[in-house]
């Protein structure tokens, strides 16, 4: 669904609510030219107790940490950004939605150094369903291992959710789609599995769960952390610092992606090799169900992860 088809009309920019079509930046904005923005992707879910932001504090933590690394000076407090987000959701009557905060260097000069450019902040919210397709949650997706490698943490800080490094994600994802696949898996410079273009990767073997560790140059995903905790609470052994070789993908019992947009999406094939029986595996399905029960407010014990709208 394109933005033109969505019933959303307001964006928060630098402390003000502006009409969607008027939320604009100058063509010489520093971050447009050099990729020096930082952002988040969060979700509001329509829970049994009403709309609520999911793990909002953790998303704000990462936004402010990312801003610190890129030397952004955010002029707004966490409370201001939170209240702006809640207001957008309430006034646009969004029971569930995707939330995009962005901090970027604005217009002043176009030297590589952003020293004289102001840090600007915006938040937008809109409805967004299944990121990898409506049937992906149940039937899984076909992926390929990309020829593009993930940058190392010694090149770009991989714990930072910055706009520029997502060029790597775009190249990998578009390569996959040009070749008839839904998504890509990206290897790191050592040839080990890193992550998807916008997702973390999980593998299931012999009833145990493995996911690539932070040392493999991945983003420390919040949905990744959620699924790890849910799996352990269900009694599974989870290896969260795994080093996974490309060949291990083909022989896995199950594979799946996690991410704020992708949520929990099964992987049914890699490079045309069926994973397991070529459909969603039982452990993936159980974790999916647990995740969706969680975000719909049907599981007890996780109230601290929700901020009511």
TrEMBL record:
Protein name: Branched-chain-amino-acid aminotransferase
Pathway(s): Amino-acid biosynthesis; L-valine biosynthesis; L-valine from pyruvate: step 4/4; Amino-acid biosynthesis; L-isoleucine biosynthesis; L-isoleucine from 2-oxobutanoate: step 4/4; Amino-acid biosynthesis; L-leucine biosynthesis; L-leucine from 3-methyl-2-oxobutanoate: step 4/4
Family annotation (SUPFAM superfamilies): D-aminoacid aminotransferase-like PLP-dependent enzymes
Keyword Manganese listed: no
Keyword entries, A-Z: Amino-acid biosynthesis, Aminotransferase, Branched-chain amino acid biosynthesis, Pyridoxal phosphate, Transferase
Organism: Natronomonas aquatica
Gene3D superfamilies attached to this UniProt entry: 3.30.470.10, D-amino Acid Aminotransferase, subunit A, domain 2 (3.20.10.10)
Record keyword Membrane present: no
GO molecular function, one term: branched-chain-amino-acid transaminase activity
Pfam families: Aminotran_4
Cofactor: pyridoxal 5'-phosphate
Enzyme nomenclature, EC number: 2.6.1.42
């Amino acid at each position: 669904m394109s933005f033109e088809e969505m019933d959303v009309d307001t964006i928060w920019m630098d402390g003000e609510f502006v009409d969607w079509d008027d939320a604009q930046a100058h063509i010489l904005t520093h971050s447009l030219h050099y990729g020096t923005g930082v952002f988040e992707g969060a979700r509001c879910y329509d829970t049994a107790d009403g709309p609520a932001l999911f793990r909002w504090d953790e998303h704000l933590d990462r936004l402010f940490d990312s801003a610190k690394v890129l030397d952004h000076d955010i002029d707004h407090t966490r409370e201001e950004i939170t209240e702006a987000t809640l207001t957008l959701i309430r006034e646009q009557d969004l029971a569930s939605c995707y939330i995009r905060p962005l901090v970027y260097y604005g217009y002043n000069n176009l030297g590589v150094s952003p020293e004289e450019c102001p840090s600007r902040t915006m938040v937008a919210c809109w409805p967004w369903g299944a990121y990898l397709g409506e049937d992906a949650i149940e039937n899984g997706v076909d992926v390929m291992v990309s020829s593009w490698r993930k940058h190392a943490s010694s090149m770009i800080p991989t714990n930072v959710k910055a706009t520029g490094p997502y060029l790597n994600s775009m190249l990998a994802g578009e390569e996959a789609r040009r070749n008839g696949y839904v998504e890509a898996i990206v290897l790191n410079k050592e040839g080990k599995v890193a992550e998807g273009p916008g997702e973390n990767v999980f593998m299931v073997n012999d009833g145990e769960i493995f996911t690539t560790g932070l040392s493999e140059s991945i983003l420390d995903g919040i949905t990744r952390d959620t699924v790890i905790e849910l799996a352990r609470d269900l009694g599974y052994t989870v290896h969260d610092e795994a080093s996974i070789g490309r060949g291990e993908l083909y022989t896995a019992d199950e594979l799946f992606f996690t991410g704020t947009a992708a949520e929990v999406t099964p992987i049914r094939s890699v490079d045309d090799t069926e994973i397991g029986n070529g459909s969603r595996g039982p452990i993936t399905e159980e974790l999916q169900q647990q995740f969706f029960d969680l975000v719909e407010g049907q599981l007890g014990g996780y109230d601290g992860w929700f901020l009511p709208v």
